[in-house]
Design brief:
Strands 1-2 form a two-stranded antiparallel ribbon. The two termini are 20 Å apart. The relative contact order is 0.18. It has 290 residues and is mainly α. It contains eleven helices and two strands; from the N terminus they run ααααααββααααα. It has one domain. Helix 1 runs antiparallel to helix 7 and helix 6 crosses helix 7. Helices cover 57% and strands 3% of the residues.
Length: 290
């Protein structure tokens, strides 16, 4: 699971030694698989039909539901008890510090994506956050950047592709990684393999320990949200809707336009919002609702 700060994200998914759990004999294979997946994901996304709307079941509905059931079983059996134990054992100030460290590790890739989206001010702010928290914040343990007025931003390569006008493709629910789309999957791979400093640690035990700690920290943050989803009449649909709404919120950087069905700028037939609403919001591309 990648370094992530998002309450619904993903968390996820993205160069050199592969995921932390991949051992040396499999590294070359892992590289080929990751690059192939990224290439195929981008190609499929580029060729995705506009009719693959995030509002319908989608072509992978049955597979998605099976993966959701698998993830839910693993979460109930392993991740949720581990997250509750983590919260019970680790003091809150320590958990905040751990969260700050992993958030700080993600900042450089966020800055890169802000620049790629044509937002230089936000990119420089995120770069300043990383420098301030790494130095004065003791490797990110303390969030001094916010006190200095440097705002935190959220950007990833999947959203960058959306701003470049790349179609999102059908909705996917991945084993272990959760909700995504073909476009977001490509973005996850790029972000994880280029922007996760943990994978560059040469010591396998340390690398694996940090990966597990990051996973526990992310799951602990989601205790309330996941409980709410599991309590819904259809947890799969609620998870899908929450993910799509969160992606739209992030696409518009926290200020999504208000749209009304049937009016100019309302939801377009192929999903997302109509061009009028996008022009009013000053954006390009299509909001990633899937």
């Amino acid at each position: 699971m990648p370094v992530s700060r998002s309450p619904c994200d993903e968390t996820p998914s993205l160069p050199h030694e592969g995921p932390a759990w991949v051992r040396s004999p499999l590294r070359a294979w892992g590289h080929r698989l990751a690059l192939s997946t990224a290439t195929c994901g981008l190609a499929l996304t580029l060729g995705a039909c506009a009719s693959l709307s995030g509002h319908g079941p989608g072509p992978f509905h049955d597979i998605n539901r099976a993966n959701f059931a698998l993830n839910e079983a693993v979460d109930r059996a392993v991740l949720r008890p581990a997250a509750h134990a983590y919260v019970a054992v680790v003091p809150h100030p320590v958990r905040i510090g751990i969260h700050n460290v992993f958030s700080n590790l993600a900042d450089p890739m966020v800055a890169v994506n802000e620049f790629l989206e044509g937002r230089p001010r936000q990119g420089f702010e995120e770069s300043g956050r990383f420098l301030a928290n790494t130095t004065f914040g003791v490797l990110g343990l303390f969030n001094v950047a916010s006190a200095l007025g440097l705002s935190r931003h959220h950007a990833d390569f999947g959203l960058t592709l959306a701003h470049w006008g790349i179609p999102r493709g059908p909705y996917l629910y991945l084993p272990l990684f959760g909700p995504s789309s073909l476009r977001s999957l490509t973005g996850r791979i790029v972000d994880s393999y280029l922007g996760n400093p943990v994978q560059y640690i040469s010591s396998v035990p340390i690398r694996n320990t940090l990966t597990l700690l990051n996973l526990l920290e992310i799951r602990a943050q989601l205790i309330g949200q996941i409980h709410l989803i599991y309590s819904a009449p259809d947890p799969y649909l609620m998870m899908k809707d929450a993910y799509q709404q969160h992606q739209r919120y992030r696409f518009y950087h926290g200020h999504p336009p208000i749209v009304y069905p049937g009016l100019p700028g309302g939801p377009a037939p192929g999903g997302g919002t109509a061009p009028t609403a996008r022009r009013q919001a000053g954006k390009v591309g299509t909001p990633p609702q899937g």
